[in-house]
Amino acid sequence: QMNGSTDGKKIKKRRVPLLLSIRFRIMFTIGVAVFIAVASVLYVVTIPVREELEAVNTDYLYNQTRLYGQKLETAVNLTQYHTDIRKVPFRLEAFLQGARLERCESSHCFLVRDDGIVLYHPDHAKIGRQVTVESIRKVAVQVGNGTIPEPDIVTYTEDGAEKIASYYASSKGFVLVIAADRGDFLSTINQVTRLAVMAGCAVFVLMLLFGLLQALRITRPIRVLSEVVDRIGEMDFTDDPRTAKLARRRDETGLIASSVQNMRAELVKIIGAVKSQSAALYGTSTKLMGNAQE
Questions:
Q1: Is the pTM of this model over 0.90?
Q2: What is the distance between the alpha carbons of residues 82 and 74, in angstroms, rounded to a whole number?
């Protein structure tokens, strides 16, 4: 083994720019692939699920309004002594207390007479006044004219909030409406979407970490071998245990490390042979010079 340098200068350590490094390329490739995969899954799965959940919520709103509208019709039909339940506010409020959507804080119902007058509303200040929702007022007008439209879903804006509502028009001369803020109505759907996005981001981050580990596993042996080759270039043939460890690997870096080891061993043999020949020549020349002086 030999240490030293032919010109006394050490080879300057070289650094690969980050954007040109294998590590960056591996992480970039994995990142792009995972992003495309996650985005595709979210697009293919989340949108249909969102549409399905919205349809389920809409059907629930529709059926709830229809149910309470029919119950109210029955209550009006069974009224005794001509005491219409619609004319007794506290009975009407107790009757319609459950006419709302579960787990939807903004949901509420209100009852409109066929002339557009509000018979019941959680905001008691609106009772006895004309309904302010234009789409519901038009339905009430239709009922007043003897045309009973089928139950339906409508959207409108009230007090700066977008509402979604279902109405039930009755031949008894009323329109029952159950409404909710659209954002509150879609809260479950939005929550599912957020969870899906968060899961996608978590997968993306985990895959990037996995890509970083794999990139380090690939590039670290290359850097070690680069250092060993640089030392050999400086005529430093000291055995490096890291090379022997890498040579035991069964991948491409193991092949490269084994080749570096073989190269170092052959160079050591060559230089040893050169030294032996040099010593022999030196001895012969010394002997010849001694003979010449005699």
A1: no
A2: 14
